[in-house]
Protein 1
Amino acid sequence: MASRRLADRVALVTGAASGIGLAAAERFGAEGASVVCVDVDPERSAAAAEQVAGTGAEVHAIAADVSDADAVETAVRAAIERLGRIDVLMANAGIAGTGLAHSTPLELWDRVIAVNLTGVFLTVRAALPHMMERRGGSIVATASLAALSGVPAQAAYTAAKGGVAALTRQIAVDYAGYGIRINALCPATVVTPLVLEAYEQRGGDVDELLRERGRDVPLGRLGEPLDVANLALFLASDESAWMTGAVLPVDGGLSAAMAPRHTPPAD
């Protein structure tokens, strides 16, 4: 049941068109926030905003590529102009990118880093001056369990998400004096369009690969977007007021296990 933990607040979510971003936008809206849905695809961003509006929230859709500094600045400025402020920022947009270090094309490396790491930096950088002026704000960055341990054949993705975890800690230290908090989510495999794309890139039977991966998880299943969105809501709310710089696994116990029972192929 919604308890309006984000009443009278404004939340901006990148990568809001699907998966974890959409689930978080809906949870924020259901808890009373006005929500800005940002995604690279204008049509999908608008569709997400329409879905989030079903929670009763005021919602705005903005199209922006998070790897484009000007586009990000424009999106953040537009959100502030429309709604007056940003209290919660969820830097969530990301892309897949499978490959071993010796065979990952530079173009793929650059694109994965640009979206998954630089995109978080640009989004946070654009919002920080506003939050500094208001002396407060909660930032939630989506990293990955890949930020905490190696994942077969994910060189660029793991490097990018590890960077998000490190950047989270750094921003926490540098901006705590302004009342700005930042924490990072580290999901294990969550069944989202991004994860399905990553598994398709590996080849083979995607459904069987996902079932195999689910058997590795101590709690016996893969994650759902709502599993992560619920933690994002906690971090966005005042319930986590004494938390900043945390890099938190959301993984069904996977990081607590010594080793998975089924290791996916490396190539």
Protein 2
Amino acid sequence: MTYSINTRVVHGDNSYDISTGAISFPIYQSATFRHPALHESTGFDYSREINPTRQKVEKTIAILEGGEEGFAFSTGMAAIDNLFQVFSPGDHILVSNDLYGGTYRLFEKMYKKYGLSFTYIDTSKTINVREGTRENTRGIFIETPTNPMMRISNIREICDFAVSKNILTIVDNTFLTPYYQRPLELGADVVIHSGTKFLGGHNDLLSGLLVVKEKGELAEQIRLIQKTLGGVLAPFDSWLLLRGMKTLGIRMDKQQESAFKIAHWLKENKNVKQVYYPGLLEHEGHEVCKNQASGFGAMISFTVQNVEMVEKILKDVKLIAFAESLGGVETLITYPMIQTHASIPVEILNTLGVTNTLLRLSVGIESAEDIIKDLEYAMEG
């Protein structure tokens, strides 16, 4: 029987423990497992390789994304690091130019010295992908919506092109999650998540996830890399992530509902110059997002009139927390230029629109009216 995504996020890969009937899947807090005899195994030997609680997370995220194999890591950056081990010196990767600063730092500071080369392009224009491809291009790394400017890339178009060139397509799906967007169904080869964000949903764990579309060589490579490098998700954090994913649907629907109200309020506020939210009809990527996703998410970026207003807002918000990260039940406001994107040179940020007057808002599950009152007080009070 095929269930809706609302049901799948609750039950995942049979949310209960088949062995005991426990409705909350247990935390198998064990580093190692006993062998019944020589050449015999229960299927679990050592937790770096496989652990029952982490396995439940990996099977669940694969089900939600519509992929064949899932892999869970200690952080989102660990997930990207493990994936990029599949590339070789001399390989060229096309990357969305508006992306999380930590990803940019990983590519520029770590992987360039190992012989990989990266070209940063606006992937919201598919023509840039076609024109940027070289003979040695082996991968296309897409954020959509991008962080923090909310640009939308046409996943189908890019994947159709990539298939014709035998290029691996990788989509960071952190902002919309499989509840709203499933890139593998649109043709992508790999999906990446910072599970720390909407999937976990409570700002209480770090995690990263990979899902591959098909069983085969790529999945086997990643499994070997995961086992060898060992940056795996711990049993307790795996349990927290499983618990968080059960409420993903109701959280995201509430957060999106509030995001619509807040985005429209920001549009009309005299202190705000520009609002970036894919759910707005005037957003450049609105129609593409509408056609490839079932929702627009709960992330909003906006620019204010001057730096003094930025300082006032960050100092005077009371309900909203001035903090990094996103996707939790609490509303957070972030200043990308000095926080999430500090690793990216200022001249690049300015060309993208990530200026000293840009703020990013991760809408939580509080009353939208209360969040608006808090912003209004911080701007006007």
